[in-house]
Amino acid sequence: MKLFQRKQPDQTAALAQSASAAGQPSAEQITAKAIISSIDEGLILLSADGVITVFNPAAARITGWNTEEAINLNFLSIFRLVDSQDRELKEAGNPVVDAIKNRQPDKTDTFSIVTKHGEKLNLDLSVMPMEQGTLLVFRDITDRKKQDAEKTDFISTASHEMRTPVTAIDGYLGLLANPTTATIDERAKGYVEKAQSNVKHLGQLFQDLLDTTKADDNRINARPVPLNATEVAKGAVNDLSAKAAQKNLQLTYDAGQTLQPIYLILADRDQLLEVLYNIIENAIKYTAQGGVAVSVDGDDSKVRFKIQDTGVGITPEDLPHLFQKFYRIDNSDTREIGGTGLGLYLSKKLVDNMKGRIFVESVPSKGSAFFVELPRISEAEAKLATQTTPPLPPPPVQESTAPTLDQPVAPTVQINPPESIAPQA
Ligand SMILES: Nc1ncnc2c1ncn2[C@@H]1O[C@H](COP(=O)(O)OP(=O)(O)OP(=O)(O)O)[C@@H](O)[C@H]1O
Ligand SMILES: [Mg+2]
Prior knowledge:
Elements: H1 15-21, H2 27-38, E1 42-46, E2 52-55, H3 57-63, H4 67-70, E3 80-82, H5 95-102, E4 106-108, E5 112-114, E6 120-130, E7 133-140, H6 142-177, E8 182-183, H7 186-216, E9 225-228, H8 229-246, E10 250-253, E11 264-267, H9 269-285, E12 291-298, E13 302-309, H10 343-353, E14 357-363, E15 367-377, H11 379-388, E16 414-415
Parallel strand pairs: 10-12
Antiparallel strand pairs: 1-2, 1-7, 3-5, 4-6, 5-6, 6-7, 8-16, 9-11, 11-15, 12-13, 13-15, 14-15
Helix pairs in contact: 6-7, 7-10, 8-9, 9-10
The chain binds adenosine-5'-triphosphate and magnesium ion.
């Protein structure tokens, strides 16, 4: 696409001009023009080859270019998008160029525009391929992004600070529950177990909030290594089988009928496991009877994990919202089940970061199938990646919050002096 390439005015299809081209504009054309001029969203219509044919006043206000300047220019010359790392998107990765090429609609809020005056504004942008051309609708969300960043910062600091005392409480409860470090009666033991399970939940919640803020800030530090997808899936099934058994559910790895090829992927093992755990734990949580089957299949270009359950299912109205932050379905089947609505949000962020796709199919009251698709790599690519993977950095030094015998402990509890104390995790 050529920048600053002006088309002859008579070749353009500016809506306003074409309205009057065939004589008097119709009532519908006048109404359309009034709406386009008065809406708060920036609206740009492009011809099939990316030339601006309609540029409404809101588009002029946001971009800093006036309508006369913009009309007949290739959009790339004035609709200058940059990504989160401030890289200008000429062709590769530009959502408008992609939509024009692929004829697929797109909606994104991850890009910014550089205005005529050099200012950078965050945009909420929808790109819609039309019969002849492409429609861009956008809003300036710089203020909202700033508020979001402040909120994220607050949540991140608060959850980080709160995690420290929670870890300490967990440690003390571990000491209490351990007969070699404390003596308590059976009734107290029951209370301690309940407190322990709740404090673990609280700790997990703070961890999820921290992970969420990291994901929101694009601070997911992945260390991708070649992995055998089948082995990772089997490992996740193994790790969670006790949890399923507690609910009398079958959790199985379904190897299929035919001999499976080796499905290799490039991913951070811990992050992939976190995604699989989140989905499998959900499947267990939202299934009352029956079971959960995990399987892996794929083709030349991708590998697909499938987690199928026989649980409560999800209605078509809820399906599009499942991966939103804090989204939980509130109905009689799910009301009593605890959760925060962060698991799937985080999973999607992680899968996006792996250049993959996560999606779901479901039949209410019958069950759901969650899918994670990741790019497949060849054995040669795996070998190359193994040779080029840098060594692991040293583990971060962690502040110790574990209680010791010197620290004060609730006076009503008798602490047995052990030789060494290792609080339960
Ligand atoms: N397998 C499933 N079957 C039915 N509903 C599900 C399933 N998985 C997720 N959901 C619905 O999607 C919602 C969002 O799931 P998500 O994992 O993000 O949150 P959560 O499980 O409620 O809490 P947590 O943050 O602790 O994971 C759930 O509250 C539940 O209503
Ligand atoms: Mg969950």
